[in-house]
Specification:
CATH architecture of the largest domain: 2-Layer Sandwich
GO cellular component, one term: cytoplasm
CATH class of the largest domain: Alpha Beta
Domain RRM: 60-138
Family: Belongs to the MYG1 family.
Number of helices: 20
Biased composition (Basic and acidic residues): 159-199, 207-248
Number of domains: 3
CATH superfamily of the largest domain: RRM (RNA recognition motif) domain
GO molecular function, one term: RNA binding
Structural class: alpha+beta
Oligomer: single chain
CATH topology of the largest domain: Alpha-Beta Plaits
Distance between the termini: 90 Å
Strand order of the largest sheet: 10-9-11-13-12
């Protein structure tokens, strides 16, 4: 809004210092709200001829600022179409990178819709950003940039929608029709009936997805991200009031009241460039690996990339147009969404990015995506899971973030960077060829495959790693983590079991070793527990386990005595003079007894024998 001498007299009532344009966008938002409140007090509400909107009666364009850089044209259409037919949109993008600059311009079919949009959407919060919506005076269509094709130039000049069809229309321009028909190979066509009472979108997109589904998905996503109750949210400092007396909630209501018997054109056609709606993830072509397959899958777990197209190429010009690039390009720059690790200068680990984490393995493209988006990805995977409170949920997310990296992603990082698990001086006793990275490598087309179908095989690789990734997260969250409370209770009760405090009884079978090690460290009691016992429901006996020195190790803190190992049943019972023994393993790491009392006697006797 710009004040000048040509303003209507009633508008000049407001042109004091407190309402002049300032640089602070939030101040401008508040000023427009104050204008609306003043119109209410002065009785101008509902009278367009006396409203400040009158100055912009000849313009159906609005300015939209303060946008989240991740929002696309399709997102804006989803939000702003509730107040009228949108016929043109120009989201300002950087000429070099193609990235949004956070503001743009949108044109409605009539000026009335601009009033509704400015009154109701100015100051709302979308994707955690307060946006500014204002009128635009004498907006000019962007000039040609030189790198645009004929289709884009035509869209800039004519907008998203053609002129309304008239009842008495001239003969078709056959040449014009054929040009448009030919151009449809590179655009998305959306046919949409004009609004009467309800919007009823019936046409389809070439990719097979319905535009109304995409629009509703965007709307739902941003409503959810803007407010917990699904409504658009206003900041506390800005009240959300419409100064309209006529209570038109949308342009369709206004049309019903003011149109000639509701007569509307039968159909309108919208044309958008597909690259403005569908985002793209770039990675290299040729032989694929586990890390970029996982990186692409993880990105597609995020709502903003869920429908993104994966572009496999090494062409810098094509990669430049991608919204995010992984494992190619020789650049690591999170601000521009570039995540390659092959450049000579790259030597980052998870600890390099977050100093409080212990992981020092060099990151691959999978690790980079996980480092920057891992917590958000885990939230998306578990978004339907219930938690008692947000603080508890955040704590669980942090634990799962570390757990999933340690037991899934780090292995992929190490293998892609050629890092051995053990010292090269050690000779392996057998080969391991069935790791996830090996299985992904096996999906690459063979050298003598006459029809390799490389991209289809990469899709299979993404599905393979994705299924295992999701499986691990759901297991850690639904199986591994709930066991902690059981282990903690058993640890706290250890002194009631035996005065030594070295025996832990689990009341229920569960994953316990890693939790025990964590709890011991937290309680400053490392190495306290020597044996654990629990009932094996399948075999109906009590297992006795010698606690290992590490969760994955077979070397124990206190293995069962050598003289017990390999014995079973009566022979074992006779040797150690304890009834109902079942067995002791040949390595001494575990055993069993048919009763709880017998199991505890075996453990205590082992403790006594070892102390002697």
């Amino acid at each position: 809004m710009k004040w000048n001498q040509n303003m209507p007299e009633q508008t000049k009532l407001y042109s004091d210092d407190s309402f002049t344009r300032v640089m602070n966008p939030l101040t401008n938002v508040k000023n427009l709200q104050k204008l609306n409140e003043r119109e209410l007090r002065m009785g101008f509400a509902g009278d367009d001829s006396r409203s400040w909107h009158q100055k912009y009666r000849d313009s159906a364009w609005i300015f939209i600022g303060g946008l989240n850089f991740e929002l696309s044209e399709g997102d804006l259409i989803a939000v702003f179409s509730q107040y009228g037919e949108i016929v043109n949109i120009n989201l300002i993008r950087d000429k070099q990178t193609g990235k949004s600059r956070g503001f743009g311009f949108l044109c409605y079919e009539d000026q009335r819709s601009t009033n509704l949009a400015v009154d109701n959407l100015n100051g709302i919060k979308i994707a955690n950003r307060i946006i500014r919506v204002d009128h635009v005076e004498e907006y000019k269509i962007p000039k040609e940039r030189g790198d645009e094709d004929d289709i884009v130039k035509r869209l800039h000049l004519e907008g998203c929608a053609p002129e309304k069809e008239e009842s008495s229309k001239p003969e078709k321009d056959v040449t014009r029709e054929s040009e448009i028909e030919e151009s449809r190979n590179s655009v998305v066509k959306i046919e949409k009936p004009s609004i009467k009472k309800e919007v009823n979108t019936t046409s389809t997109i070439e990719s097979g997805k319905r535009y109304d589904d995409i629009r509703n998905k965007h709307r739902n996503d941003y409503q959810k991200s803007s407010s917990h109750d699904g409504k658009y949210n206003k900041p506390d400092s800005v009240e959300h009031k419409s100064h309209r007396k006529d209570n038109f909630s949308s342009k369709s209501d206004y049309q019903q009241k003011n149109s000639n018997n509701g007569n509307q054109p039968e159909k309108r056609t919208y044309v958008f460039m597909i690259r403005n709606i569908m985002k793209s993830i770039g990675t290299h072509n040729g032989t694929f690996h586990c890390d970029e397959a996982l990186a692409c899958f993880m990105l597609k777990c995020l709502p903003r990339f869920s429908d993104a197209k994966v572009v496999r190429t090494r062409d810098p010009q094509l990669l430049k147009k991608c919204d995010v690039v992984v494992d190619v390009g020789g650049e690591y720059d999170p601000s521009s969404m570039r995540f390659d690790h092959h450049q000579r200068s790259f030597n980052l680990s998870l600890k390099s990015i977050e100093s409080d984490l212990k992981f020092e393995t060099k990151l691959s493209s999978a690790g980079l995506i996980y480092a920057h988006f891992g917590r958000e990805i885990i939230r998306e995977v578990l978004k339907n899971e219930q938690s008692s409170n947000m603080e508890e949920k955040s704590s669980i997310i942090e634990i799962l973030f570390k757990k999933c990296y340690a037991e899934f992603v780090e292995e992929i990082d190490a293998k892609d960077n050629g890092i051995d698990q053990f010292s090269s001086e050690l000779k392996p006793k057998f080969l391991v060829t069935t790791t996830l990275s090996n299985r992904v490598a096996a999906l690459n087309p063979s050298w003598n495959d006459k029809e390799p179908h490389e991209n289809e095989q990469f899709e299979k690789a993404m599905q393979l790693v994705g299924e295992e990734f999701i499986d691990r997260i759901t297991y850690f969250h639904g199986v591994w983590w709930p066991a902690r409370s059981i282990v903690l209770e058993a640890f706290r009760s250890r002194n009631a079991v035996d005065i030594s405090g070295a025996i832990m009884i689990l009341e229920q079978v569960c994953p316990w070793k890693e939790h025990l090690f964590d709890i011991e460290i937290e309680d400053d009691q490392e190495g306290a527990i020597k044996y654990c016992t629990f009932h094996d429901d399948r075999n109906d006996y009590w297992m006795i386990i010698a606690v290992p020195i590490e969760p994955k190790s077979f070397t124990c803190r206190k293995p069962f005595p050598e003289s017990w190992r390999g014995l079973r049943d009566q022979e074992l019972s006779k040797t150690i003079e304890i009834e109902k023994c079942v067995f002791v393993h040949a390595t001494g790491f575990c055993g069993a007894n048919k009763t709880k009392e017998g199991a505890l006697k075996m453990i205590k006797k082992s403790l006594s024998a070892l102390s002697d």
